[in-house]
Specification:
Elements (H helix, E strand, L loop, with lengths): L5 E7 L6 H9 L6 E7 L6 H9 L5 E5 L6 H11 L4 E4 L5 E2 L3 H11 L5 E9 L4 E4 L6 H8 L11 E3 H7 L11 H10 L4 E12 L5 H8 L1 H18 L6 H10 L13 H15 L4 H18 L4 H15 L4 H16 L1
Parallel strand pairs: 1-2, 1-4, 2-3, 6-9
Antiparallel strand pairs: 4-8, 5-9, 6-7, 6-8
Helix pairs in contact: 5-12, 10-11, 11-12, 11-13, 12-13, 12-14, 13-14
Keywords: Glycosyltransferase, Transferase
Family: Belongs to the glycosyltransferase 2 family.
Protein name: Glycosyltransferase
Length: 343
């Protein structure tokens, strides 16, 4: 296998509690040909001092500093502009890469030249528990379909082919203070393909006071507007011209609210409309579209804050409309319902 240079990009902001373990996980990668680019976005804690101590011990580390807190989309674009590697591996300042993460993803990208972004399975770390997050889909077309409903790739699990970014001049939208990665993936999906290495290669931390959780709490309405704008762009791009009622229902059902308690939507009708449009317009392979759509709707049914029997009724209505049989998803909905009731 050839050994192309990989830029590992880590944007940081007030990350003194996590940056040491994150950087150590990159420095100790089995793949050694790394350009470790860290951009500090105006931290006011000891993050910068920690970074400089690491740089004094490893000359692969480069530190750039924003003159003040510019926000994550600006910082991500600065990372794209300053990357030296053939590939860009994205990390967050509080995540941990397994020793072979870079090696496995480089090997995959070197074999599959038609892939422009590759993710991986990961372990999600919460305050009390951890979950193994195994991708449901690995096929490039299925991942594009899944992107219509939600992001199929965790941003800090990704490796990006930089030639695709440079040739197509793809940037993060700096107007999106959240979900800029979701929009970024959509832009890449217009010109390239996605895949996921079917291995667990990192630990992804959630449920603490990072930037995304703060914005989720403090700017919920603005966040919802951003998600709706991105969904609208995708629906229009792929020609899913829904009537006004179905369009509003899609935006409501597939925003990132995981605690919907005002359920008044016949999602089985919405799903049926989308299946018909896909078949009439030959947008995606019929069987793949139906499989991904059914999974995407099932996930959201599980998030409804309604009685279990109502969830089951909605689920079987979806089964009847889509003619797609998958009882495993029903079991997942039931288990998830009782788990969150007990916790």
């Amino acid at each position: 296998m050839s050994t192309p240079l990989v830029t590992v990009f880590i944007p940081v902001y007030n990350a003194q509690n996590y940056i040491e373990s994150s950087l150590n996980s990159i420095i100790n990668q089995s793949y050694k040909k790394l350009d470790i680019l860290v951009i500090d976005d105006g931290s006011s804690d000891n993050t910068l001092e920690i970074l400089k101590a690491f740089r004094s011990q490893d000359n692969r580390i480069r530190i750039l500093e924003n003159e003040n807190n510019k926000g994550i989309p600006y910082t991500r674009n600065r990372g794209l502009n300053n990357a030296k590697g053939e590939y860009l591996a994205v990390m967050d300042a509080d995540d941990i890469a397994f020793t072979d993460r870079i090696k496995e993803q480089v090997s995959f990208m070197e074999i599959y030249k038609n892939i422009d972004v590759v993710g991986c399975n990961f372990i999600e770390l919460g305050k009390k528990l951890f979950y193994k997050k195994k991708s449901k889909f690995y096929d490039p077309e299925e991942l594009k379909i899944r992107l219509l409903f939600a992001s199929p790739i965790a941003n800090p699990s990704s490796m990006i082919r930089m030639s695709t970014i440079k040739y197509n001049n793809i940037k993060y939208d700096e107007n999106y203070f959240v979900a800029q990665d979701y929009d970024f993936w959509f832009k890449i999906s217009k010109v390239g393909n996605f895949a996921i290495v079917p291995k667990f290669l990192m630990k992804y931390r959630v449920d603490h006071n990072n930037i995304s959780n703060q914005t989720r709490k403090n700017k919920a309405l603005a966040r919802r507007k951003v998600i709706q704008e991105i969904h609208t762009k995708k629906l229009n791009y792929y020609g899913f011209k829904l009537d006004e009622k179905a369009y509003r229902e899609f935006l409501f059902f597939f925003d990132d609210n995981n605690n919907i308690n005002n359920y008044k939507i016949d999602i089985s009708e919405l799903a049926s409309k989308m299946i018909r449009i896909n078949e009439n317009n030959n947008v995606f392979a019929k069987d793949k579209f139906k499989r991904v759509l059914f999974y995407s709707f099932s996930i959201k049914i599980g998030n409804l804050n309604i009685p279990l029997m109502q969830k089951i009724f909605i689920y079987f209505a979806l089964l009847n409309r889509t003619k797609f049989i998958n009882i495993k998803e029903l079991l997942r909905i039931i288990i998830k319902h009782y788990y969150f009731k007990l916790n």
